[in-house]
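Appendix C reproduces, verbatim, an entry submitted by the partner laboratory led by Prof. M.T., so that reviewers can inspect both the input and the predicted structure.
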Amino acid sequence: MDDIIFWHWWILGIALIILEAFAPGAFFLWMGISAGVVGTILAIVPDLGWEYQVMLFAIFSVVSIALWKRYQTNNPTVSDHPTLNRRGEQYVGRNFTLAEPIVNGMGKIKVDDSIWKISGDDCDAGTKIKVIGIDGTIFRVERDVA
């Protein structure tokens, strides 16, 4: 273990950053950067024992990952398509006319090219309804009073 030199840490850092490309999540990225920092410290202080190197790597990794997670929590990514991959949510607030009645609180509605289950108060066919929410794949609806 005494043969560890700064290049070893830099190679580990590059390997972790490459691993990040295959398993994204900004976890291996910060560990790779931490390995690079330890390699740089080792280049400056070549007599640093391997125990201290590993300890520094662990500390830098944990601290950088924790800071990144905290930053992500406080500054979430804003999307210009917030309902992307959440297809049902894009129908919340839209109005439809029932082709089939809602019986015992459950029914179906054709929306564009799909048929969705709906839940709400019993209504006759032809009633105008509004989607007010979604529970999994079931629209929650209410009578449209507009």
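Residues 50-74 form the longest helix (25 residues). Additional entries are available on request from the coordinating office.
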